[in-house]
Amino acid sequence: MTNAKVSVSEIPYATREPIPGMLPYEDVQFQIVEAPALMEGSAEGKSLGVQTLALARNADGLILMIDLSRDSINQLTLILTELEKARILVKKPKGRVELERKFMGAGLRIILIGKLLSCTVKDVRTLLESYGVRNAVVKIYGEVSLDDVEDAVFGAATYKPSIIVANKMDIEGAVRNLEALENHVKGEIPIVAVSCKTGEGLNKLGEKLFKTLDIIRVYTKEPEEKEFSKKPFILRRGSTIFDLAKNIHSDFSENFAYAKVWSKRLVFSPQKVGLMFTLEDGDVVEIHVK
């Protein structure tokens, strides 16, 4: 599916180095990196575990490969245990904190999109300043405590949206192992059942990744141009005009005047909006600068 040249083997741990490839889904290109498999002790440095866990920490999301010819629950338990030891979480937390450090003199800006638990914005500011964070943009989504803010400062725990790809649906006993896996996971992590040999289920992978990563496509339009760009910017759900402007060029966010948005959800399009306007999948945006 990715046109990558990978080593295909029935022997476990055949992959010895990361192998990148591209997975197309509609007008989105996902970069998929096949990494050496985790084993017991990977988080402590066994085999190529450190390399794989570093890749996982820097990724936007994870695909957890399960072999349905073997005990699916034991495989998943091993993977999750090693990830957890490395403070990589695959089950979605109730909230998240994004901290982007800025240049000296920019000041501390806290954007509360969610809800603070047992603390106030003032408490968050005090905590951040106590750790020397005085020039940053901090975005708080969902339900967040001071401990979550502290984790964001030190980069301790990180959440990676994940899907389980259960492979070898073509073999005898696969359905039984898949059912056991589904009962064990209880819907907490999406599962895509596939056969890399026959191609069964592989066409569902792109859509499942798109939904699980919780991303949106935003298209841009040049002022005075009739058509918008067919190549979208990929942003996290909940992103604003400010996030888009920053992705295009730093000058756009710093010299922003206003934006026009075309969207099916708006009563009137285009609508003139400001930096904090929340974007949705499929929106078309025209940014005007001073």
Structure write-up:
This protein is of the alpha/beta class and 290 residues long. The protein folds into three domains: 19-90 and 160-213, P-loop containing nucleotide triphosphate hydrolases (Rossmann fold, 3-Layer(aba) Sandwich), CATH 3.40.50; 95-154, no CATH class; 215-289, Ubiquitin-like (UB roll) (Roll), CATH 3.10.20. The chain has eight helices and 16 strands. It has helices spanning 49-58, 72-85, 121-130, 146-154, 174-185, 205-213, 241-248, 250-254, and strands at residues 19-25, 28-34, 62-67, 88-89, 95-101, 108-112, 115-116, 136-144, 158-159, 162-167, 191-193, 215-220, 233-236, 256-262, 271-273, 284-289. A hairpin with a 2-residue loop joins strand 1 (19-25) and strand 2. Helix 3 runs parallel beside helix 4 (146-154). The chain starts with 18 loop residues before the first strand and ends with a strand. The mean pLDDT is 91.
What is the helix fraction of residues, given as a range?
25-40%
At CATH's second level, what is the architecture of the largest domain?
3-Layer(aba) Sandwich
Kindly provide the name of the CATH class of the largest domain: Alpha Beta
> How far apart are the termini?
45 Å
- Output the radius of gyration: 22 Å
